[in-house]
Design brief:
Elements: E1 3-5, E2 10-19, H1 25-36, H2 38-41, E3 59-68, E4 71-79, H3 89-94, E5 99-105, H4 111-127, E6 137-142, H5 152-159, E7 166-168, H6 177-193
Parallel strand pairs: 2-4, 2-5, 5-6, 6-7
Antiparallel strand pairs: 1-2, 3-4
Length: 194
């Protein structure tokens, strides 16, 4: 999806959040919105809690992240839902993907769910002809603020077989969330400009 509009001096890219159910994909988007939207920061806009009875097909958040050279960078963030998507919708969301953030639930009891979600992400991207090793990507070790969180070194050994850049995070408080996004965007901009 990456494209540059030289007339308006904009660069657009598409980043998709993957992860196990409950890992914090939606919380990441809510945290980014809360940290980047002036109305949220100033208390003029209240974020309502997610409705457990209404499950969206996917979640989308457009974010403007500033300048690169003479271009304004706009990022389109998508979070895949916990349930498997309709087979016809998944290729549409993955078409033109420019980067990914894999959100790991750091709780030790979630390790098997993380492994299954990691295999699923690799498989569905592979079916679309996309290889994670070719994408700007980061592995986010989320929920590091919890007492049952596995240490980063152990999570790396168990999950990060591709040796992706990684970052500890606590999406509820916002710690590490923007850092993960910046890691992927910096990789994307380097590749886009070369």
């Amino acid at each position: 999806m990456a494209f540059a509009n030289f007339h308006s001096h904009e660069i657009h890219c598409k980043i998709v959040y993957f992860g196990a159910p409950g890992s914090g994909k939606t919380t990441n988007l809510r945290s980014i919105l809360a940290q980047t939207t002036e109305d949220v920061v100033n208390g003029k806009l209240t974020l309502s809690p997610p409705d457990p009875l209404h499950k969206p097909l996917f979640e989308f958040l457009p974010v403007s992240i500033g300048q690169f050279q003479k271009h304004h960078v706009k990022v389109h963030l998508y979070a895949l839902p916990d349930d498997k998507l309709l087979p016809t919708l998944l290729p549409v969301i993955l078409k033109g993907i420019d980067g990914m953030i894999f959100v790991v639930d750091s709780a030790i009891e979630s390790l098997h769910l993380n492994l299954r979600a990691w295999q699923y992400a690799q498989r569905i991207l592979g079916e679309e002809g996309i290889f994670i090793s070719d994408l700007p990507a980061v592995m986010q070790y989320n929920k590091q603020d919890l007492s049952n969180a596995m240490p980063r070194a152990l999570l790396r050994r168990c999950l990060n077989s591709l040796n992706l850049p990684d970052q500890e995070a606590a999406a509820v408080s916002g710690d590490g969330v923007l850092e993960c996004l910046h890691i992927v965007v910096e990789q994307f901009v380097r590749e886009f400009s070369s």
